[in-house]
Amino acid sequence: MKEENNINNSKSNITAGHFPYRRGIYEGMYKDKLWTMRQYSGMTSAIESNKRFKYLLGKGVNGLSVAFDLPTQIGYDSDHPMSIGEVGKVGVPISSIYDMDLLFDKIDLSKISTSMTINSTACILLAFYVCVAEKRGIPLSKIQGTIQNDILKEYIARGTYIYPPDHSLRIISDIFEFCSENIPKWNTISISGYHIREAGSSLVQELAFTFANAITYVETAIKKGLDPNVFGSRISFFFNAHNGFLEEIAKFRAAREIWASIMKTRFKVTNEKALKCRFHVQTGGSTLTAQQPQNNIARTTIQALSAVLGGAQSIHTNSYDEALGLPTEEAAKIALRTQQLIANETNLVKFVDPLFGSDLIETLTEKYILKVNEILEEIDQIGGAVKAIEDGYMQKNISQTAYEYQKSIDNNSTLIVGLNCHEEEDVEIDLQQINAQSVNDQIKKLKKIKKNRDSASVARSLEELKTAAESESNLMPFIISAAKNECTLGEISDIFRGCFGEYKMS
Question: Per residue in 74-100, pLDDT tens?
Answer without folding.
Answer: 999 999 999 999 999 999 999 999 999
